[in-house]
Amino acid sequence: MYKSIRRSAYHLAEEGTPWAEDFRALPFPEHWHAGLLDLHNHGRDEEKRQPTLPTRRLDGVLQTLAPDVIVRPRPRIPVESGPQAAEDFWMYVPASAPAPLPGRSLRQLLDAWLRTLGPKNSAQDPRFRALLLASSAELKQNLPEWQPVTSVELLTTSTTRGGTAAPEPRQFQLATDALARRILTLDPFPFEGGELRFRALPRGPRDQGAELMSQPLCRTVKRKEWWFSVLLNISLHTTPFDPRPRVHLHWGVRRWATHPRTTTKRLNLPYREATTVYLRPTIPWLPGAPATERYALARLRRDRAADTFVWSENDTAGILRGLSLAGNFPDPEQLLTEPVSWIGEGRGVRAAVVHSTRMGKHEIGPGFMPNQRAQLTEWAEQALPEALVRVPDLARGRGKGIGAPQNRRPKPRTDEAKKAELLREAQARRVALAAQARIASHGPEQAGPTVVEARLLWQSPEVRGEAVEQFAKALGLDGDGGASAAHITDRDFDEATPGAPVVLEWRTAEITLRLRCLPLADGLGDRLVPDPAVKGRGAALAAAVADRRRALRAWLRADGADPSRPELALVEVAHRSTFRPASTDPKFAIRLGCADAGLLTQFVVTPSTDRQIDNADSLDHRTHSSWLDGLRQLGVRVLPQHTLGDDLPDALQYAAVWMVKRRKDGPTRLPKHLPVAVLVTPLPAGDGLAAVRGWDDTAGEWVPYPRFLLGLVKQAEIDPEAFTEPEAPGEDARPSPPRVTGKQWRSNLTQQRKETAAFLQRVLHSLRGQPTALITHAQNSRLHWPWLQDGQTERDLIKTGHAPAGRLDDELRLVRVRGCGGRESAQWWGLAEPGKSHGQPAGFWAQNPQQRHGDGASPGERVFYSTTERPGTHAISPALDRLATRVNAAGNLTSQAGTSAWNPTLVEIAVLGCHEDDGSAAPVRGRPDDPEALALAMHQLRQAPDYAAALSLPLPLHLAGLAQAYVLPTLADSDRTPGEESDTPSGNQSMEDPDLADAAGLSTTPDDEADTAQV
Question: Which CATH architecture has domain 653-720+744-830+841-846+861-871+905-917+924-1000?
Answer without folding.
Answer: 2-Layer Sandwich (3.30)
